[in-house]
Design goal:
Helix 2 (45-52) crosses helix 11 (234-253). The longest helix has 24 residues, at 2-25. The chain is of the alpha/beta class and 335 residues long. The protein contains 16 helices and ten strands. The protein has a five-stranded mixed sheet, sandwiched between helices. It has a five-stranded mixed sheet with strand order 7-6-8-5-9, sandwiched between helices. Mean pLDDT is 90; it is low at 6-27. It folds into two domains: 29-114 and 218-333, 3-Layer(aba) Sandwich (D-Maltodextrin-Binding Protein, domain 2), CATH 3.40.190; 117-215, 3-Layer(aba) Sandwich (D-Maltodextrin-Binding Protein, domain 2), CATH 3.40.190.10. Strand 6 (137-139), helix 6 and strand 7 form a beta-alpha-beta unit.
Length: 335
Amino acid sequence: MNKRRAVLWLALAVLLSAALSGCGGSEGKMQKVKVGEVARSVFYAPQYVAYEKGFFKEEGLDVELQTTPGGDKAMTALLSGAVDVALIGAETSIYVYQQGSEDPVINFAQLTQTDGTFLVAREDPGTFDWDKLKGSVFLGQRKGGMPQMAGEFTLRKHDIDPQKDLKLIQNIDFANIASAFASGTGQYVQLFEPQASIFEREGKGHVVASFGTESGRLPYTVFMTKNSYMKDHREIVQKFTNAIYKAQRWVQEHSPEETAETISPFFKDTDKDILTSAVKRYLEQGTYAEQPTLAPDAWNNLLDVMEGAGELKERVAPEKLVNNDFAETAVNSVK
């Protein structure tokens, strides 16, 4: 009897050991995903929350993030296979489509839903009026990029012809725009956070308007991947979208101070109060998408903006370049 009991305990021990080994081995089975972001910006706060709060790991993903400044460079990294997923403006997927790509780039999870730039004036204008820009030197963004197109869309909305009513400078690399303004170029500049708040603190400029508020809802920054990758790695794309949705909910449910504290490891050279100010600005104007689904009306607004900028060859129906299946599944299943 004792011998039988000993054999039974031995068998249980072996089973328990195997179970524990299986649990421990799950860490080694994390699925690798290489992500390329177009810039390092507070604008993308929910993405950094997904890292810091472990939402990617909860989904069994080992996500490697790299920053590739400029939409063209980030898209090149995606098309070449240097990254699996890219965080870029949705307009870049349209550019690829317009070139007749056999492997189109598909938008599957929206992160930001408005423009993220602010109009910064060198001098305090007192009461701001858009007419003050007429005849001024305006330091804009790269031609064909979403910041520049949304900026021009807003200027035209206020009866300002970007090509005739002001001197528009747009030949400076994205990474150097802030330093160019700081060194004396331009009377007005279009800046993302936290640079806008930093310039205000340092007395180098004054935020006078929001292009995000002015240009309306847009699929401004979206996670996208090649159609071939999506077909071959549907499980990974779904897990990735789940993690992003968890982060989006977390940002909406927590204070700007908590979000700033959480994402601070990604902005080690930026003061916490500046991060908080930037997050607060974006939350107040509804910049961070509350869920990853890309709405058709926002897509159509994007087409209007691109058309106005002369960058659209044809209006592309959202179903050609948008796949909301992963986003809808995340919204309906993530608790």
